[in-house]
Amino acid sequence: MVELAEALERRPVVLDGGMSTALELAGHDLSDELWSARLLLTDPDAVRAAHLAYFRAGAEVAITASYQASFDGFAKRGISESETARLLRSSVGLARSAASEVDGPRWVAASVGPYGAVLADGSEYRGRYGLSGRELQAFHRRRIEELCAAGPDVLAVETVPDVDEAEAVLEVVRGSGVPAWLSYSVRGDRTCAGQPLGEAFAVVSGVDEVIAVGVNCCAPEDVAGAVAVAREVTGLPVVVYPNSGERWDARDRSWTGDGGGFATSAGEWVRDGARLVGGCCRTGPDAIAVLAENFTAAGG
């Protein structure tokens, strides 16, 4: 199969949507600190089915259910290190199994979520956890090693809120030999921790494994500006997978706003230079199906 980096030289590629969204649409309760990672343990068939739904909708890349999976998080549930290692590797295997059910090129991206995700307190949208770079490297290293051992096509270092964590993760990725993309969570033209995006994207310099940079889990209106900065600073392919455009109301515990225009922006992002395009929170298989259709019409 053609490597993802090579494919991006020829054309844009469609990513999937939110794993949690697909699982919730299928009736699964994710009100748990482990979030979708819990189903790696309790219902792996559901994870595989979610991947398959996205592939059938037109996605070409599946992002694994390992975003919130970690040795620390599973240890809190009394799960051993050996079992945690198996679960991390299984996340890649489930996506690979779903890919075998559909025709055409399909790639598996092993999700490497931020440290804040394991805290389950929203700190992944703030960053600045009070940990040293060495401590962040130690947290990420063990699970990245297990994910790499499972043979993904790429590591999805995603929803990173600040430059400090990005630098720590990239030190782990450096020398691994596994391609990776780096994707920040942003507000406007800055990371969630407030750093300028030019500074944030520049940290990939010299890390040969990085094949794309960009943003995810952000408002759709933040994408175009991020694409321009990423291209100017790095010259690498750009990855974008924003939320639907709806907003979470913590008081009412509900989503508000209209996410209907999400997929129609794909043409603009592709014309601006995005090469990996998908969705994050509140974007399910139906949204990806529309995205893929519009994406193809725009030249993807």
UniProtKB/TrEMBL annotation:
One family name in Pfam for this protein: S-methyl_trans
Annotated binding of Zn(2+), by residue: C217, C280, C281
InterPro entries recorded = BHMT-like, HCY_dom, HCY_dom_sf, Hcy_S-methyltransferase
Q: How is the cofactor bound?
A: Binds 1 zinc ion per subunit.
Where does the Hcy-binding domain start and stop, copy by copy? Answer: 1-295
Q: Which GO terms describe its biological process?
A: methionine biosynthetic process; methylation; S-methylmethionine cycle
- Assigned keywords, A-Z: Metal-binding, Methyltransferase, Transferase, Zinc
Give the matching PROSITE patterns: HCY
Q: Which GO terms describe its molecular function?
A: S-adenosylmethionine-homocysteine S-methyltransferase activity; zinc ion binding
Which cofactor names does the annotation list? Zn(2+)
Is Zinc set as a keyword in this record?
Answer: yes
Under PANTHER family, the record lists: HOMOCYSTEINE S-METHYLTRANSFERASE-LIKE ISOFORM 1, ZGC:172121
Q: What is this protein called?
A: Homocysteine S-methyltransferase
Which species does the entry assign this protein to?
Lentzea albida
